[in-house]
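User: quick one, fold this
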Amino acid sequence: MRAARSIRRILLGLLCGAAWLTAAADTSCRIAYDLGSSGIRAGASNSKKLVRTKLDALNLLAAPHSADEAIAPTAMALVGLRKKGRFDPGCRQLGGGFSAWRRALAQDPAALANALARIHAVSGVAIVVIPQAQEGAYGYQGARQILGDRLVTSHVLDLGGGSLQVSGKDGSFGADLGQKLWLAELCRTLGRTPATPCVLQPMTGDELAVARTHLANRLKDIGTALPGVITMTSISRPVSRSVYPALRKLDANGVDAGGFRLSSLGEAIGKLHGLDMDAVAGLPGIAPGHSSYLLSDLLLLEGLLQATGGEAIRVAEIDLTNVPGLLMDDRGFSWSMKYGCYLDHLKAEGLGAYGSDPESCH
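Assistant:
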């Protein structure tokens, strides 16, 4: 009861300062909020600023019926980011909810819709839950804009905390196999003691075979989403700042200045899987805080290459967000202006609500 009263006080305070934003909105500019698994990034169409804040949505929304727990911290973060960026309060506002919000939607559509309505009432931000195919389109367009001629592969690989996304001009694939979720799933499969993060190592040879078989089953549909054999450029930090430097320090074959080959992943897995976590953390080139995820990341990338028929992954870290894609998303902003109708669709259709026609609303 005390926690509930505290949340109500927080929401009331925010409401007094922010409720007028919706009424003041016009079509002169847009603000977009990229709600990821561990943080929110925000930008505006009439500003060069990109502001960000931490928010552990993956944990906030992990348990069933936990959407109410996310209302106050999410609303505070959204209002805080608008102020931090000094974005025009007359702009239309749209939030894109990605992997953590998709999982919450799958657990309880009605509870999430009710929570989103309360967040909107407080912050003025309409959060739309974005399908993975649309997220893939945002990612590929953004990466191509940033990398230009440096993007020489057909697809980009974005490994986040909650989701894995392989995006290209001709087809995209996404799954809830981000770094944190994949490690937790792998630990459950192998019967490890639950923890955050759980302790995966040491692994026996039999356990390694179970892990690889399980991942192959999880990725069995990737061929129907992607056009045959593809090539990939990884653009995310778990690869560029953990896996790639670790492979180089381990002197794995098939690692060069541009990236690494499938054979190097198998070689590194063979060297690491029998070691305990203290031994892994003490290896040169292992980034602090990344040792818990290194083996599971290696297995994930190996399985991904095998599933797609690829031989190598190129590495090009960029600061990619979904903000540019959201700012250009006319459908999303149309839903933000008919948000009550969107939430009705969300309760009835789940993730398919985004693809419905906003013009059908009265």
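User: anything notable?
Assistant: The first helix runs from residue 2 to 18.
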